[in-house]
Specification:
single chain, 531 residues, alpha/beta, 6-stranded parallel beta sheet, 5-stranded mixed beta sheet, 19 helices, 18 strands, 31% helix, 15% strand, globular
Length: 531
């Protein structure tokens, strides 16, 4: 599931303007070099938990077309791009999961690459965790006390444990690390925030790690969520429903994909990835709004909540409450609840079965509901249906950017072609300020809307129902302030969009303070209207 800045940055890597000037760039082991001079040193063990698409996936298959790719990455590195262009059918066979089991197809085996280099760089020159690792090393960290818990992000969390014993290995790794006398700080990015939420419920449960109610408090010092997505991402809905997102409906990308991989192929791949459904929006209309409006609707002179748009309202915004809108196809506008039902109806029987087995998307409002489902693994991915662990000595830090246009809702129409999903994004031009090629844009980090980035951290996790044991929750917001492309294609040290926040100096400084034992100095900072 590609983020906007990833596609943008990969394009610019091929055509970088060489102009230069006195600029503030990432790299040079900053801000760690400055903080080290102030006395910061390593204290807690660190586990990095990457997000979706970040972990490289390498082939361990030995049959048929797999042999030339043995132990090479078919996700990540230049091998992936070569395989897509020159051996697409073989690549698709490897990257898809079996639609009946949600696991490996017969004769195919992809596994997450291991070690710090599993997600430090996606390809040469395009860092993901590389800057964070450099900065941690300045404080004294190495591979003995800093690990990267890579995982196969295609697979549901339930199957990650069943197939790979991922959570058992993570539990053992943390327990072993504590023999040094130090707790662990879990630093997550994007989908990794959900992985850790699931892990903390799994490790407590008698149906999981059997660690008991004190395990998290005993072993975990803090969880730092960087650009976390606890309430999901609307673009996941579009990806599964029609094989589309902003990157696939832009004219150039659409042309290329039509020649290499069409919507039908993309939808088939996306729907086979049972892990992707973990990023579907949680909370339905109670969180994301209804046809009368949404809590994060843009503040403007006029917000249109209707299904039709008057040509005279060329400066208006459209409400986000209609998650999927239809102008003239007979289907009424759909709230988030209705949109998820549209998706479920579009899935085949196996896809429906696996989604029901692995996930729940609702809201619990009472303690009795929480108690009744505390050992149900389906709710462990949904922070609105489970409680934070019994860990009053642990802190959760939510660090995220905002100020980048982010997919929030969509206009759809019917697609009558027989070889594609029956619905597609309607690219008809509309005189609406926050609509572009059928995509309704809102506030966020370019990938995750502000509502998902911040609501749990700024509000729900500060309430006893969702945080009954008083876990300290800190929210830190960062305005996305990128440099011009000719100065730094990744935006520089003040970029705070979804991926490039991993190189943001202020964010990195907060992470370093927490792992060095100075988390008490990292406190709330709000720069948006999330509250």
């Amino acid at each position: 599931l590609l983020s906007d800045e990833f596609v943008h940055d990969m394009t610019k890597l091929l055509a970088l303007d060489k102009q230069a000037g006195p600029i503030r760039l990432t790299g040079e082991f900053e801000p760690a070099m400055t903080l080290e001079k102030e006395g910061l040193r390593k204290k807690h063990n660190v586990v990095l938990v990457p997000g979706i698409i970040s972990s490289g996936l390498e082939s361990w298959s030995t049959a048929n077309c797999s042999r030339p790719y043995f132990r090479q990455r078919l996700w990540g590195t230049s091998t992936m791009f070569k395989a897509i262009l020159l051996d697409k059918e073989c690549w698709v066979q490897h990257i898809m999961l079996d639609k009946r089991t949600g696991l490996d197809p017969h004769g195919i085996k992809l596994r997450a690459a291991q070690g710090l280099d599993a997600a430090d760089y996606f390809i040469t020159g395009y860092w993901i965790w590389g800057k964070a690792i450099e900065n941690l090393a300045v404080l004294g960290y190495d591979s003995n006390d800093m690990t990267l818990a890579s995982y196969d992000w295609r697979v549901s969390y339930y199957d990650l444990e069943r197939r790979d014993q991922y959570f058992s290995r993570l539990q053992s790794r943390i327990e072993l690390a504590q023999r040094t006398g130090a707790k662990t700080v879990l630093v997550t990015h994007s989908m990794g925030s959900q992985v850790v939420q699931y892990f903390m419920k799994w490790v407590e449960s008698p149906r999981g790690g059997r660690g008991g109610s004190q395990w998290v408090d005993t072993h975990i010092e803090a969880v730092i969520n960087l650009a976390g997505s606890p309430l999901g991402v609307p673009k996941t809905l579009a990806s599964l429903l029609s094989g589309e997102q902003r990157e696939t409906v832009q004219p150039l990308a659409s042309y290329l994909l039509d020649h290499f991989m069409n919507r039908k192929e993309l939808a088939r791949i996306f729907r086979s990835w049972t892990g992707l459904a973990a990023l579907l929006p949680k909370g339905g209309s109670a969180v994301w709004g209804d046809l009368s409006g949404a809590p994060d609707d843009p503040v403007s002179n006029h917000t249109d909540v209707s299904s039709q748009t008057a040509d005279s309202n060329v400066h208006s915004d459209v409400s986000f409450g209609g998650q999927i809108r239809f102008d003239s196809d007979g289907l009424g506008n759909q709230t988030m609840d209705g949109a998820l039902q549209l998706l479920f109806d579009a899935l085949d029987a196996d896809e429906q079965r696996l989604m029901h087995r692995d996930y729940s998307f609702g809201v619990f409002r009472t303690q009795s509901e929480m108690d009744a489902h505390k050992d149900d693994h389906r709710v462990w991915t949904n922070p609105l249906q489970h409680q934070l662990p019994n860990a009053p000595n642990m802190s959760i830090y939510c660090l995220y950017g905002h100020g980048a246009a982010t997919e929030r809702a969509y206009y759809y129409t019917f697609d009558n072609s027989s070889d594609a999903p029956s619905l597609k994004i309607d690219r008809t031009p509309r005189p609406l300020r926050n609509v572009d090629i059928g995509i309704v844009n809102g506030e966020g980090d370019g990938t995750v809307p502000l509502l998902s980035l911040g609501y749990m951290c700024a509000d729900a996790w500060r309430k006893p129902l969702y945080n009954p044991h008083g876990v300290r929750v800190v929210t830190r917001e960062f305005v996305h302030n990128p440099l011009a492309v000719f100065k730094d294609i990744r935006g520089g040290a003040d970029a705070a969009d979804h991926i490039n926040i991993l190189g943001n100096h202020d964010v990195t400084a907060d992470v370093l303070r927490v792992v060095a034992g100075h988390g008490q100095d990292v406190n709330d900072r709000f720069t948006s209207n999330i509250r």
